[in-house]
Specification:
CATH topology: Serine Threonine Protein Phosphatase 5, Tetratricopeptide repeat
CATH architecture: Alpha Horseshoe
Order of helices and strands: EEHHHHHHHEEHEHHHEEEHHHHHH
Largest sheet: 2 strands, antiparallel
Distance between the termini: 17 Å
Structural class: mainly alpha
Number of strands: 8
Shape: globular
Radius of gyration: 22 Å
Strand content: 5-15%
Number of helices: 17
Number of domains: 1
């Protein structure tokens, strides 16, 4: 694998204060000032705090190859909920390759595409920062409480990075300590070993992280964040590999996960559903009562203020990625029209006896009456756009680069997701509780009660969590045949194909080439197992120690 520097250079904040007043951006909104060698670092509590912020900062990247392709957007485009979209058939070819998983060793969807290698690099940089922190925290002159707490945060973040990494690549090296030069070339570990380490890191973190809200904790991970992430890890691992998790000292089975989820759901934990579903993504509700784990973003500019310096920016790239192309009016600013929602998703929402209000909150429809001035028809145009993360005036700042200044937080795990995970795990165990958790989610939007069944849970998760980068991983844990069935079934052109609509008349469009009908046809390649290729450049660097993934 790509060598990771022994001496990590940390991004040092000119001013970085730990606060407890709940200021949303207090911990991660940092002003870059300089870099310091590791050997001169880890002496004071402030330096340790700065190093910890550097680990959190990797969460904000979400952007690969110094281009505008956020990883949540990739997960959307890989699912049945969105097409890759973009400006043309050659725009963001890397994501188009995973739309059907047609990645090969040749053009146009070449496994050597730098974007796949960048995904690998992002996560290993985050892991390296966490490992460096864990190796050096005992050198810091501070209290045992500070060391224990921040060690828990570093382990939580390492688990977070490894979970994303193993989901995308499946067969990855497991590195949990700083490497010496003769340790750089590591073979891939069995996926179950990686999942067990993730579980160990999360349970370790849970012993020290506070049982408080993210707002009260300054936007940092909490006990609840770790336990909810552990539940998500368990469900994915159980679905794909049909085995429980093992930390080395205990087994994490369904009963244990139900207990963790019940803790979060208990009123004493302080979580609840926000009354109006669409308000979840408003600025006033960031780090609110529905946020169990949220990635904090800000509009702080990178050192150079250039898009080539994006890895040091702190904005949410999903906003620009999902936004409608070419608009120049209010309330939308021009975006890249990537990961455009499918007609299949649009039709998934219930319409009787009432229209599910989550459809309008999730899918922005720009038709003849709502289109902003100047909208340009993109590739695989459907007339639909992600309405949860969009280029609205609420998050736009007056200065800075349009590309990198979107400060909208990423709602990584919401309370409704916790309820649905718990409902799923209580089916056949405590049906009354399973039904209650499911119908609490449905009741928020005025829908009638349903019995909690696997099919009903799958439907509810799709419409409740659409546009949040979750659906694809659910499809994989439901099984490859099911994933193929649903992705192939999303081959619906929809009523807004090429800018005309049988529902609302023609859309006012400028520019853009018509998309051929076959570009909407999905034929998912099961042989790839829904995973990215191990980057060929990494295989070469390893002298063959790293092995290609199945199907490549």
């Amino acid at each position: 694998m790509q060598h990771i520097q022994k001496n990590i250079m940390f991004l040092v904040a000119a001013t970085l204060l730990l606060v407890t007043n709940g200021c949303k951006k207090s911990f991660l909104e940092i002003t870059p000032a300089s870099q310091i060698e590791e050997s001169n670092f880890f002496k004071t509590e402030l330096q340790a705090t700065q190093a910890l912020a550097g680990i959190y900062h990797v969460l904000q990247w979400g952007n690969i190859n110094q281009g505008h392709t956020p990883l949540m957007g990739w997960a959307e485009a890989a699912s049945d909920d969105a097409y890759s979209g973009g400006g043309s058939s050659s725009d963001a070819v890397g994501v188009k390759g995973i739309e059907n998983f047609k990645v090969t060793t040749t053009a146009p969807f070449n496994a050597n595409d730098g974007t796949y290698g960048s995904v690998w690099s992002i996560y290993y940089q985050g892991i390296a920062r966490a490992n460096t922190y864990l190796a050096n925290i005992d050198r810091v002159e501070s209290t045992d409480n500070f060391k224990a707490l921040t060690t828990g945060e570093a382990k939580f973040l390492r688990a977070h990075f490894y979970f994303d990494l193993v989901k995308w690549f499946e067969n990855v090296p497991l590195i949990i300590k700083q490497q010496t030069p003769d340790e750089y070339n590591q073979p891939q570990a069995p996926p179950q070993e990686v999942f067990n380490q993730i579980a160990k890191d999360l349970t370790d973190a849970m012993t020290v992280l506070p049982k408080t809200s993210m707002k009260a904790n300054g936007g940092r991970a909490t006990y609840w964040s770790a336990s909810a992430l552990l539940a998500r890890v368990y469900l994915f691992n159980k679905g794909v590999y049909n085995t429980d998790l093992n930390t080395g000292t205990r087994t994490i089975d369904a009963a244990a996960v139900r207990t963790y989820l019940d803790e979060i759901i208990a009123p004493s934990a302080g979580f609840d559903l926000i009354g109006n579903y669409s308000d979840v993504w408003r600025k006033a509700n960031e780090l609110g009562i529905e946020s169990v784990w949220e990635v904090v973003h800000s509009n702080v500019q990178p050192i150079s203020g250039s898009t080539s310096d994006q890895f040091r920016a702190q904005g949410n790239y999903n906003v620009l990625y999902f936004g409608p192309r070419g608009v120049n009016g209010t309330p939308y600013t021009a975006g890249f029209s990537n990961a455009v929602p499918t007609e299949s998703l649009y039709q998934a929402f219930e319409t009787t006896p009432i229209l599910d209000p989550r459809r309008a909150a999730t899918i922005l429809v720009l038709n003849s009456t709502t289109a902003a001035p100047g909208i340009i028809k993109g590739w695989q145009h459907t007339g639909y756009f992600n309405n949860k993360y969009n280029t609205t005036a609420e998050y736009k700042t007056a200065s800075g680069l349009n590309d990198i200044n979107w400060g909208q937080n990423l709602h990584a795990i919401r309370f409704s997701d916790v309820l649905l995970m718990a409902s799923e795990l209580y089916i056949g165990v405590d049906q009354t509780k399973a039904d209650a958790y499911l119908n609490k989610v449905r009741g928020r939007v005025g829908l009638g009660n349903r019995v909690a069944t696997i099919d009903n849970i799958r439907h509810e998760r799709r419409v409740e969590l659409a546009g949040e980068g979750i659906r694809y991983w659910d499809l994989l844990r439901y099984g490859l045949p099911y994933a193929k069935q649903m992705i192939d079934a999303s081959s619906l052109i929809g009523p807004y194909y090429n800018g005309t609509s049988s529902l609302g008349g023609p859309v006012t469009l400028t520019g853009g080439a018509n998309t051929p009908a076959n570009a909407y046809q999905m034929d998912w390649d099961v042989s790839k197992r829904g995973r990215l290729p191990i980057p060929p450049a990494q295989i070469t660097l390893s002298n063959g120690v790293l092995k290609p993934n199945p199907g490549y």
